[in-house]
Fold this sequence. Notes:
Elements: H1 22-55, E1 59-60, E2 63-64, H2 65-81, E3 116-121, E4 125-130
Antiparallel strand pairs: 1-2, 3-4
Amino acid sequence: MSSPQPPANSPPAKPVSVASSPDDAGRQMRRLTRRAFVRGGVGAVAAALGWTWLRTRGADGGIPWPLRAAHRFNERLWGTVSTNRLAPEFPPSRASVPRANGWHGSPAVADPTSWSLQVSHPDRGTKWCRSPG
Length: 133
């Protein structure tokens, strides 16, 4: 059985660098590790500078203008793709009585004068609020 051959017009394969000794392998790993560390550091600095730049841009409607511009671009793009951008409307005859609390509803035996609510915050302590009644 013959091994598969590369296509005739493909570029020659790069030779694989194989360390000839354990010392060569250690040097090669250190070199690759330093390179990866430098690349990661450059990426982190670029991300921090980009975030700082974004935070210092002027606001357009309460949002930094680059984000607002991206939002407007998305709206224009989807405006060309989707001709009907609104949710469908139905006649009132198709409506039903709204459900309270999903399918389960509130228990009929609950006494609104007997419940209480505890509101707490780890730094500000606990406050109690009772129901009117």
